[in-house]
Amino acid sequence: MRGHARHITAVCGHVLLLAFGATALFPLLLVLVNSFKDSSAVTANPLSLPTGLNFENFRQAWSYGHFQRGFINSFILTFTAVLVVLVCSSLAGYVLAGKKIRIWPAVMIYFMVSMTVPIQLFLFPLYFGFSRLHLLGNVAAVGVVIAAINMPLAVFLMRTFFLKVPKEVEEAALVDGANTFQLLRSVILPVVSPGLVTVATIVGLMAWNEFLITSTFLQGDSSMTATLGYLSMNGTFSTNQGVMMAGAVILVGPIIVIFVMLQRYFVDGFVSGSVKG
Amino acid sequence: MPATEAAARPPRRIAARRPDTGATAGRRRARPRRRSTLTSYLLVAPAVLLSALVVVVPGVLTAVAAFTDWDGIGLKARWIGFANFSSILRDPVFTTALGNNIRWMLLFLTIPVAIGLLTALLLLTRPRSRTLYQVIFLVPYVLAPITNAILWLNIVYNPLSGVVGYANHHGLNLGEPLSGLHTAIYAVAAVDIWHFWGFLTVIYLAALRQTPVEQVEAALVEGANGWQLFRYVYLPGIKSTLQLMWVMIIIFSFLAFDYVWLMTQGGPAHATEMLSTYAYSFAFASFQFGKAAAVGLIMSLFGLISSFLYTWLSRKDLNA
């Protein structure tokens, strides 16, 4: 009797998991299916399967969404944000993990509070400053802003990874006469490199997906990121659903591939920022 | 601030020990120590300065601008005291927006938390399929709000070519969820929840897996059933993570912007207006930066309260 009941519970569990998995993927499958159909076929029945593999939608989406320029801008934005965050957060994380300055608790509290400051509190004067400095539309400068916004989380993550460096290794290097920069470069960075990858994936994802800052600061056609280009395409092109869905596949596809390849680091990053032991 | 005091203790203890080393030795050692402290400050500086330049300086300017009639274009601004605040507090749209933020918070404190907890518990006993399910659940979370919003707008909610339109034409009347005054906010929240809950699954699962195996086995030996196992063994272990997630959800609920702006821009007739979209419209639609700043300041107040809660809950981190 009891084994029977347990069996039923297990089956119910699997059914639930499958149902939630289907909910997560269903809209994305619809996108994929409809990206191969022409406009009238989508309108007739968005749930039907395509009759063939027609890549015309993708060709049109690529040119109307200005994806070539968009991907280049997204790369510049993401690369700048990741580079700035990696350099600054690893240096700060190293000092904070080793409690090397007397005011380290103050710095920690500063980062904790600034992590929860809403973008709306600093968006408007920052926009004004950017327009005065003629930086509106400057993709790299916006990348630096995104880096600054993600800095607190990155510092905390890097600090946890630096805490894992054994004290003895560091002391041995100092005894051998290494200075701080040699110590960082040749002894500590190799140990914390998984942390760097985790921070890079999380911040890279944030920068690539950012909406509020980028849509406000990057308004010229030439400075649009891939997602902003797609957004403007939605305004002018939304009657042809097949092309819209092809555009979505162009945007979503690479991200899913990268996510599946690096999923361990993504999960690490999400979890280490949020689970309290 | 008991956490700060406890955390500040170690450096002070080192300082107190210094006289014991004797005057000459102390002086000889003091120079390299001072230099390395200077280096340490220089290493921390880029992160702090960059964050201060982008967050603190404009943040302070916002706090000042909230009391002026600044238009965000020129440098001229007049000090008008609390006029922005009193006009906002009298505006019925503000009340609608605040109500929507609170409704948003209640939706997010319950639905994604329940789904996340349920799926995490189900995955806890399925080590083989765990990774696959986690990846599937997280896919919507790693996609950009722009793509998620547009694909829902076009293929699900669109009354002509979406699934909803298809259902309406075939006898299943779903109406137009995004255009209904009473349904719009739930239609938008549904997309944001769809994108968010997988994150909670991963977080809760990671927290659940930290429960010591011996405790689980001991409870099973004593004949605990599934509910008792959850209530008395797992729940106490993940309590702090649950609390932290709730605090983060409260913070994000008062900042919610992306999906609302992308799908309805606060419409129809302010039915999905949030504090964030309300502030954004002031700044970039009617160029009332002073009022936008005032709304931003009010939003930050909610954020600040939650932020204190967050710091208090994270105080263990400081002592790590």
From TrEMBL, chain A:
Membrane topology: Multi-pass membrane protein
SUPFAM superfamilies (alphabetical): MetI-like
Membrane-spanning ranges: 12-33, 71-97, 109-130, 136-157, 187-208, 242-262
Localization (cell): Cell membrane
Domain (ABC transmembrane type-1) ranges: 71-262
Recorded GO CC terms: plasma membrane
GO biological process, one term: transmembrane transport
Keywords: Cell membrane, Membrane, Transmembrane, Transmembrane helix, Transport
Domain of life: Bacteria
PANTHER family assigned to the protein according to its UniProt record, in alphabetical order: ABC TRANSPORTER PERMEASE PROTEIN MG189-RELATED-RELATED, SN-GLYCEROL-3-PHOSPHATE TRANSPORT SYSTEM PERMEASE PROTEIN UGPE
Family: Belongs to the binding-protein-dependent transport system permease family.
Protein name: Sugar ABC transporter, permease
Source organism of this protein record: Streptomyces himastatinicus ATCC 53653
